[in-house]
Write a structure and sequence with these properties.
The protein is an alpha/beta fold. The protein has 15 helices and 13 strands. Helix 8 packs across helix 13.
């Protein structure tokens, strides 16, 4: 079986990380997998970049320009909306033609257009689409934040000026997605049971096959280690407790830094506690915390990331919307208890008061309670063991690869039956 994974980047963002890990897991189980990307950073031979062309950058710029105009020339929400009005035609590439299954992941920001996806569907090849967010099931957005219009038809979009209208841009793109899917079948795979439920509620995806499979993780890389040794290698003090926050961009409003700032104010009585901030713009956030803070910045070295997890006492991700965050999975694989809000797929990863703490949504006080509970728990070794056990049983490469192979076989059988 030959599978072509399609993603905008091979390194940037959680979807890229997840797609890479899936490719490795499948290749280890006898499936021949290549990844096609627009933005190739690694030197891996199994990752293929789109042929170089000035159009690649133009596609990205044109979509942003159209959105910018529709936002009345405001940058607010500029990167929260995707139209897929332009993109590359990949159907003529040899990697596409030799594949038995086309596996789409995060294909936004000029990678694929709705027209190109329609052409892929009409090629006769079975298509699997892993949903890393809700965008395939909505008109414009990647995060709904309580909006339920996608359950019927998107309109009055909160991201558009004035809250949109009854027949706004979200409605227009919704209709184009309807035409793209008309008469065609896609096997949609959500990374969490929560997202699968949201996708099944979408008026856009009625009649499509939808299941949930978590992202895999390499437990040979992400694993527990000696905490004090990790701290020595990182130059951290050994006699402190460390709260770890990680995000690609620490200032991303959706990652809930404001709630962590407030929670830290309520933890001022805990002695010897320091917050580690992993991610871009960490130095902008660190001064806002009432506890000691160390901005680690953006780190791309996987071994160093593992050391940071191993050095910490608790991982906190107060996101306002999440699918199945890789960072929580990585932390737990390293034996690090986690604290997050009861939102999206986070409660699927964290078992409340067994391997972490699930705080009430948008409740900084309960977030502080969770951090305090982990830091003062007398059963820290037991928490750590339960973290590793949860990851091994649910997110190992083997278990995830076998579930995807089953989806590929179903997709191929359905396509053959229809032909």
């Amino acid at each position: 079986m030959r599978v072509l994974i399609v993603n905008t980047s091979d390194r940037s963002g959680g979807a890229a990380v997840a797609a890479n890990r899936l490719m490795m897991a499948l290749n280890n189980h006898g499936v021949k997998v290549k990844m096609l990307v627009r933005d190739k950073i690694s030197d891996s031979l199994t990752i293929v970049a789109l042929p170089k062309s000035p159009l690649l950058h133009w596609n990205f710029l044109w979509e942003r320009f159209v959105i910018y105009c529709r936002l009345h020339f405001s940058r607010k929400h500029l990167f929260e909306i995707d139209l897929a009005n332009t993109g590359s035609d990949i159907t003529c590439l040899p990697e596409f033609q030799e594949a038995d299954v086309i596996h789409l992941h995060w294909i936004n920001q000029g990678m694929l257009s709705l027209g190109t996806i329609r052409k892929i569907l009409r090629s006769g090849k079975p298509v699997v689409w892993t949903m890393h967010d809700i965008w395939p099931a909505t008109g414009l957005c990647h995060v709904t934040l309580g909006c339920r219009y996608f359950t019927s038809v998107c309109h009055q979009c909160r991201l558009l000026p004035g809250g949109g209208s009854d027949n706004d841009l979200s409605t227009s793109v919704w209709r184009k997605k309807e035409r793209m899917l008309d008469g065609e079948s896609i096997f949609f795979v959500a990374c969490s049971r929560w997202l699968a439920g949201e996708a099944k509620a979408s008026g856009l995806l009625k009649g499509q096959k939808i299941t949930s499979i978590p992202n895999p993780i390499d437990t040979h890389v992400y694993k527990p280690g000696d905490r004090m040794e990790a701290r020595r290698r990182l130059g951290l003090k050994e006699d402190r407790q460390y709260i770890l926050f990680a995000s690609q961009r620490a200032t991303n409003e959706n990652k809930g830094m404001d709630y962590l700032i407030e929670a830290c104010r309520q933890l001022h009585d805990l002695p010897q506690v320091t917050v580690l901030i992993l991610g871009g713009h960490a130095e902008e956030v660190a001064p806002q915390l009432s506890l000691d803070a160390v901005p680690l910045g953006y780190v791309n070295d996987e071994r160093r990331i593992v050391e940071i997890y191993q050095a910490a006492d608790v991982f906190v991700l107060p996101s306002l919307s999440e699918n199945l965050p890789n960072t929580i999975m990585e932390a737990m694989a390293c034996g690090l208890p986690c604290v997050g809000f009861r939102v999206g797929g986070i409660p699927e990863e964290i078992d409340h008061k067994r391997n972490g703490y699930v705080a009430e949504y948008r409740n900084a006080c309960d977030l502080a309670n969770g951090i305090r509970w982990v830091l003062t728990s007398a059963k820290s070794d037991e928490l750590s063991r339960d973290c590793v056990r949860k990851v091994t049983q649910n997110y190992s490469q083997q278990s995830v690869a076998l579930r995807y192979i089953d989806v590929y076989e179903q997709a191929m059988a359905l396509k053959h039956y229809r032909l």
